Amino acid sequence: MTTATVPLKAKDYRSEVKVVWCPGCGDYGVLNSVQKAFAELQLPINNTVAVSGIGCSSRLPYFLKTYGFHSLHGRSLPVGAGIKLGNPDLEVVVFGGDGDGFSIGGGHVPHVVRKNTDLTYVVMDNHIYGLTKGQVSPTSSPGFVATTTPYGAPDTTSVNPLAYVLTFGGTFVAQCFSGNPKQTAEIVKQAIQHKGFSYVNIISPCLTFNKIDTFDFYKDSVAELPEDHDNGDLVQALDKALNPPAGKTYTGIFYKASKPTLIENLRAMNKKVGADKNYDLNKIIDAHRP
Fold first, then answer.
1. Predicted confidence (pLDDT) at residue 2 exceeds the cutoff of 60
2. What is the pTM of this model?
3. Phi, psi (degrees; rounded to nearest 5) at 106
4. How many Å apart are CA 145 and CA 137, to the nearest integer?
5. Cβ atoms of residues 169 and 115 within 8 Å
6. pLDDT (tens digit, 9 = 90+) per residue, 240-283?
7. Which domains does the chain show, CATH number per domain?
8. Which class for 140: exposed (0-12), middle (13-18), buried (19 or more C-beta within 10 A)?
9. pLDDT tens string 158-176
10. For residues 205, 141, 143 and 102, what is the CA-based torsion angle, rounded to 10 degrees?
């Protein structure tokens, strides 16, 4: 006689570590949505790894009961990729912010993306450096006034994370708003289910240091992608990412494609060269002894 397994609930993924973000921070909504997505997928706690870099958003793994790895600033993706390559059976979800991911970590993104590494990358985009008290980030608007740019940022443009990932070959690219937890949970869920590299940009306002890109601002500007949007069309996806209607920010799944993952390609290569055979390592060592 077998004992029925009790389904995990969202709260079962919450650790005992106290959540320490500023009151009203958008990251609270992200955490709740992630836990809901995990519960809907019934991810095994002991087979799931949350990885992060440095920043307010990078505290998130502490608040989950899964395995966690708090890595160096900007190095979360290579760490996550290494974990996935080391044990492909693990579910790896990488968390970070716009500064961590697209400034110091910007050089890692293209290569993890183009290899179609089978992991999910969730970025909480607040258009500011929150942990270090309000400096301009790569996604801040040109001319943005912050602690290090009292006369406005001199940048002529800002990084568009969606276009960035799409350009380098992301096979699942989506955006949502932490103020819409239902949509956020559903998109995170689909990203985890996707086979290959999944990128989810979550607009997550910082109430303390960014007084421009607020919840009120996004409540009026966020709009779901048109019903006729074809998320299998890369050109459409790039157009929607780069050219939303004036004053609007699109949410939804911009692009989704099926391509071989890095692990699948490596396994095919191993098979081709015969590296998948079960060699007796001791015999090989003995054969090469002096």
1. no
2. 0.92
3. -60, -30
4. 11
5. no
6. 999 999 989 999 999 999 999 999 998 888 777 776 565 565 66
7. 10-287 (3.40.50.970)
8. buried
9. 999 999 999 999 999 999 9
10. 100
